[in-house]
Design goal:
Blueprint (H helix, E strand, L loop, with lengths): L1 E6 L2 E3 L5 E9 L6 E7 L6 E7 L4 E3 L7 E6 L4 E6 L8 E8 L5 E4 L3 E5 L2
Parallel strand pairs: 2-11
Antiparallel strand pairs: 1-3, 3-8, 4-5, 4-9, 5-6, 7-8, 9-10, 9-11
């Protein structure tokens, strides 16, 4: 069992920045990759960024150059640095952990990010 605890969401103006954190506990050795998904209002959940245990990263085209995913293995924590935020980034952001077969181990509780003037 893997538990994920998220933090860092909030309300920011367009062009602002936020950093999301996701701390993992439990069967950490079973984790192959961790990522961030988001679900805008009235829309489905979509992958934002993912990082594997080897450090490989993947980003949605809509956030490339603005968002950076990273991890601190000593703290068992993954981060999502979000810069140059746009209103269309408004969503509930969820942390996710997967096994090598890409089956989900756990989801975080979700944290609201709102970008508005």
């Amino acid at each position: 069992q893997v538990q994920l605890v998220e933090s860092g969401g909030g309300l920011v103006q367009p062009g602002g920045s936020l950093r999301l954190s996701c701390a993992a506990s439990g069967s950490i050795s079973s984790i192959y990759a961790m990522g961030w998904y988001r679900q805008p209002p009235r829309k489905g959940r979509e992958l934002v960024a993912r990082i594997t245990t080897s450090g490989s990263t993947n980003y949605a085209d809509s956030v490339k150059g603005r968002f950076t995913i990273s991890r601190d293995n000593a703290k068992n924590t993954v981060y999502l640095q979000m810069n140059s935020l746009k209103p269309e980034d408004t969503a509930v952001y969820y942390c996710n952990a997967i096994k090598p077969d890409y089956l989900t181990l756990s989801w975080g509780q979700g944290t609201q990010v709102t970008v508005s003037s």
